Amino acid sequence: MRNVTKDNITDAFQGYMGKDTDPRLKEVLMSLTRHLHAFVKEVNLTHAEWEKGIEMLEWAGEISDKERHEMVLLSDLLGVSSLVDMVNTVPGGTSSSVLGPFHVSGAPPIPLGYDMKRHYQGNVLLATGVVRDMDGNPIEGAAIDIWQTAPNGLYSSQDEEQDTYSFHGIQTVGADGRYAFTTVKPVSYEVPTDGPGGALLDATGRHAWRPSHLHFIVKAQGYRTLVSEVFAADDPYLDQDAVFGVREDLVMHYEDMPAGTFPDQGFDLSGKVEGDWLRVQFDLTLVRETA
Amino acid sequence: MRNVTKDNITDAFQGYMGKDTDPRLKEVLMSLTRHLHAFVKEVNLTHAEWEKGIEMLEWAGEISDKERHEMVLLSDLLGVSSLVDMVNTVPGGTSSSVLGPFHVSGAPPIPLGYDMKRHYQGNVLLATGVVRDMDGNPIEGAAIDIWQTAPNGLYSSQDEEQDTYSFHGIQTVGADGRYAFTTVKPVSYEVPTDGPGGALLDATGRHAWRPSHLHFIVKAQGYRTLVSEVFAADDPYLDQDAVFGVREDLVMHYEDMPAGTFPDQGFDLSGKVEGDWLRVQFDLTLVRETA
């Protein structure tokens, strides 16, 4: 197209694509481009603003490496990552929520009733629940990959004091679908603020806090893998998670339990918890792959 | 907002922004986010597709440095850069077109009639024209920063054989607004294809060619700076410029001139051009800063 104008450039882009272009790639690129073009026209983006955007992306590139993924953080802070979770959530199944950059693959298996807290100090938290299908039946053999911050607010990958799989473990459920482990309550923390993500937060008067959460990935044969998080109903940042991860069905009440009431069997800590403790219970509902 | 959903996440993003956020920044970010969110919802973007997008951006970051700006190339290939030029073009003024990554600042002044071709081989091209305002009056003192490829298709910054300001120069016009220089006809060339820009072209069956063009930046006191390019009407890539830079008013006819007709005064080459030569004429219309 010789005379490209602001009215036909989106069509010109489409026209450039070859016949053999993968239809789904074409659909995604067309929609992306249509929306980027509409954005530029809607705000009459200036050259200086375009340059600022390029500068932010180049900065994100510079600051990123194998451990740090600033492009992911920008996507998170703009709500794009959470929206991808949402459009892939099936009603009736547990909501997806952001994976985040702190998952470590290859965590060791942990038995039912395991104490993830180990030598760390803090109130005991007992987490229990059942992995179910959409009809409410337990899913035998489902594996739950669990990870969270230590009491200092750091994940093992951020903290030289922790070993690689500290506060990480994979629990496989039996015929009753039940999982159970003890830990400490995760804490709220800030996302990294020394890159363009932080500059974005700063320029828009936003804080960097995420409400405390337990992460998990649940895998079971024949079901969609669920990546999600569970939040505590009393967290001060619940209404303003910097990365938009909170969903109604993921907010759980952590119950204060009086001294002397910890279960006397079935847990590593049975017989060892004398003071107050906390309990949280949540079931995880998986969606069949064919759904 | 506690229960963030795909229907309210765009509002949640807006709600997060502080009262003291710059109103223009707020407008730009709101529009960008609304369109990114609409894109994700429209195509039901999968996690795998989102990851691919992040991977492309991370690759662009890795391959970029002070000399190479892959984020700019991605913006160019998606038509975003050209659209920014278009929304900032005022009707009646010469159209803007992409700056591109090959401009070198600080080029030396060149006198009227200068030969930019110097020792390079190739048919002589004489380029002339007048810098005018919207009423057609010449603009005295306007400075035209000109650059182009050498006959091998490379800009000086890409080519060890050329000195820094090879095929670069700044000409300042007099009271008649007239500029004039000789050179060789620029050649078509390919944008870099060894990064994510190339992967995008490849996946969509697109070539990497740009039609040949003369670049220029025109500056004059009281007028908007014009960044643009002039194309040749016979270029085979004119209808499919990889970066969407072609505009109707920027396509010029290069006239074949018979031997012995080169002007006999007023040019470095006067008296030295015996064979055929080429002529192109284009006026440059600037827009007042206040328009």
Automatic annotation (TrEMBL), chains A, B:
Signal peptide annotation: none
Keyword Translocase set for record: no
Biological processes, Gene Ontology terms: catechol-containing compound metabolic process
Domain Intradiol ring-cleavage dioxygenases: residue ranges: 120-260
Domain Catechol dioxygenase N-terminal intervals: 22-89
Keywords: Dioxygenase, Iron, Metal-binding, Oxidoreductase
Matches recorded under InterPro entries: Catechol_dOase_N (IPR007535), Intradiol_dOase_C (IPR000627), Intradiol_dOase_core (IPR015889), Intradiol_RC_Dioxygenase (IPR050770)
Cofactor(s) annotated in UniProt: Fe(3+)
Alphabetical list of Pfam families matching this protein: Dioxygenase_C (PF00775), Dioxygenase_N (PF04444)
Molecular functions per Gene Ontology: catechol 1,2-dioxygenase activity; ferric iron binding
Family according to the record: Belongs to the intradiol ring-cleavage dioxygenase family.
Listed name of the protein: Hydroxyquinol 1,2-dioxygenase
Source species of the chain: Primorskyibacter sedentarius
